[in-house]
Amino acid sequence: MNFGVEIGNKRLPNPVGVASGTFGYGSEYEELIDLSCIGAIYTKAVTLNPRGGNDIPRIVETPAGILNSIGLANVGVERFLSEKVPFLEKLPCALVTNVAGSTQDEYCEVISRLETCDSIWGYEVNISCPNVKHGGMAFGTDPDQTYKLTNSLRKLTSKPLILKLSPNVTDITIIARAAQDGGADAVSCINTLVGMVIDTKRKRPVLPMKTGGLSGPAIRPIGVAMTYKVSRAVTIPVIGMGGILNADDAIQYLLAGASAVQIGTGNFIDPKIASRVFDGIRQYASEHNLESISDFHSFLD
Asked: What is the pLDDT of residues 225-263, one digit of tens each?
């Protein structure tokens, strides 16, 4: 079977990647997993300047997932290039840098600086973080802002440009089409949903920011449904994610129309999950005589 996935002018070696914010900068997992089994590492978000993130606690467990309020904590673009890329560029998988910002100019400045690094395979543009006060989800809930930001970034790079979509909208397909019209090569679908956990003894939200981003199995049916809708609204590849804990979960996304998948919360449960999921996809493809990823897309109307 051909497991390669074309995005823009490049090709992912296999369809299973690890999601931004759940795999650090890769080195954290170096001794736990054979990184050659991963199609792509989507790095922790990179902003123009270092960010300390939100106050603790930042993560709360829920019955079927986790609620996080990290707040895009990261080392900033200059330290990313000097301290993190030297390790990442040696890996056999694609290096996709997740980019975030508070303003359109900040997104542009970050990508302009990253363009000096040839080993970066492509960019995932985070327009959907629910845990920051400025930027983030504001770009991903307004189709006009999504188009303008994508169009501005398109002029700065020929590398694959992937827009990460928010599920916290009335109609995600409108945002997806705006990204495509602006020049995106693919969209990631979906980021976390806004949620809240309240400490009933204190009568206060557990997270200092009050709300956070819900991920894990609780959101998988939503992610699959939105992947299904988006894949039929755009002609560019869709990368599905949300609650993938095994191969069957990932196959649901591929059958719904995804060309690739990302694993997020599952990495915290089993660092080797990406390898197991890829093995399961290969076995399923063999048993069902599927020759390529696009063959998965032929079953649902």
From this structure: 999 999 999 999 999 999 999 999 999 999 999 999 999
pTM assigned to the model: 0.96
CA distance 122 to 95: 7
Rounded to whole angstroms, the Cα distance separating 34 from 275 reads 8
Q: Which amino acid is at 49?
A: N
Q: What are phi and psi of 145, to 5 degrees?
A: -65, -35
82: Cβ–Cβ under 8 A, 6 or more apart, which residues?
none
- Looking at residue 57, what DSSP letter applies? P
Are the C-beta atoms of 137 and 130 separated by less than 8 Å? yes
Residues facing residue 10 across a β-bridge: 7
> Hunting for tokens 């660092």 — which residue is that?
271
What's the confidence (pLDDT) of residue 131? 65
Residue closest to 129 by CA, chosen among 95, 180, 164, 162: 164
Task: Tell me which residue has tokens 């699959």.
Answer: 224
Q: Are 211 and 205 in contact (CB under 8 A)?
A: yes
Q: CA 86 to CA 119: how far, in whole Å?
A: 9
Q: What is the dihedral of CA 271, 272, 276, 281, to 10 degrees?
A: 70
Catalytic annotation on 189? no
Question: Among all chains, which residue has been given the structure tokens 């983030």?
Answer: 136
pLDDT at position 1, please? 80
Q: For residue 139, is pLDDT > 90?
A: no
Confidence check: pLDDT of 111 > 90: yes
CB 244 within 8 A of CB 261: yes
Take residue 197 and report the two structure tokens written for it: 């956990």
For the chain, the maximum distance between any two Cα atoms, rounded to a whole number of angstroms, is 56
- Chain-centroid distance, C-alpha 61: 21
Neighbours of 66 (CB within 10 A): 19
**Residue among 37, 93, 108, 129 flagged as catalytic:** 129
